[in-house]
Amino acid sequence: MGRFKNAIGIRTFRLCLPVLIVCILASSVLAVGISIPQDYKWEFMPGFEKAVGFRVYNSNPVPVNILLSLGGDLYQYGNISEDMLQLGPKGVGSFVVRLKLPQDIEPGVHRLTVTAHEQPVPGHSMLTATTAVTAYLQITKPYTGRWLTAKLYVPSTSKENEPLSPQVTIENLGDEEAPDVYADVTFYDGNTSVGKVQTSRMPIAARGTGTVSALWDNRLTPGVYRADAVVYGGQNNVTADADFFVGTLDVELLNITKVLQVGHVNPLVFTLQNRWNNALRGVRAVFMVGPNVTDGWRTAGPEFTLYPWEPVTQEYYMNIPPVIKPGKYPGVLELTFAGGTKKFALEFDIIPDGSAVIESPAKVSGITNVVRLSFILLLVIIAIIYYRQRRKERMK
After folding, report:
1. Which candidate, 365, 323, 331, places its Cα nearest to that of 348?
2. Which of 65, 81, 341, 380 could disulfide-link 96, Cβ–Cβ 3.0 to 4.6 Å?
């Protein structure tokens, strides 16, 4: 009898070990967020100088150290006020980045990147998956002549045989007008060309932006495809590419923080799920909250990737001014992916300063669901073992 109990215990332990590991991993993942300033792109001027304030947020119930660093091709012209911030549980820290340019730089688009890298504090975490987030400041200096850059967007379609309208957004970084700009767009299934179309034509002013488009008679079956654009009208070679989809493509909002506090920088946690069998890259999310939504408060974050059917949780931060009257306010999540936009209508409960804030369901859902699922699996495993053992005893 003792051997039987030991065997059951060993077998149960072996079967449950992976479940326990999942629970431990789920409860030890840390995250850090960084604010994105509203004004972060400028045109070059000799001796240009700017000081920009950033905030860093610790969304965890344990303290973390945040290492701060600068990068990019403007690195030598940047200075950061702090090398490291020590944040307490759910703490907020701030720092200043100063950018001072020389009298001249090379033409083009230049960036100073700002990275916040999480370092767990010893004794406050077991297993951990550290994170790093990056923002940037951008300087543009015009080229001599007509210098073009381009981005290609091919809106995905849920229907077969539905015409596609590729759009090429072209920016003239030069100091001369480009009088006749157009693009040739080629569509590919893998490495095989399946069609080609030429866009409309338009002039683009010096340091201006324009969009040319076309209509293509799509005959593709459901799947993932690629398009390449070659742009003409400038003095440089310009190409751009983009993936697009034919078939049902959708992203669902699974959970989101709905309680915000007056006079605080509130974490805004939300979970999305990509209901498509391929990764969606370059996803952008913008939140707007207020009495008239678009005239209210706004927050956004860096681009991220949604992998197939895998829930992905993001954490943004929204400042609710102290003069705002508590109450229920409408909001919108504007999600951009695969060249299209999807909007989710929301309602937020803005509560007075000092009120108890309920933990965001989006924030705890990952851990909670894993723990619940682990216990269910554990009970199922024990039931199966018990059933099989009883069956063996009856057969003796």
Report:
1. 331
2. 81
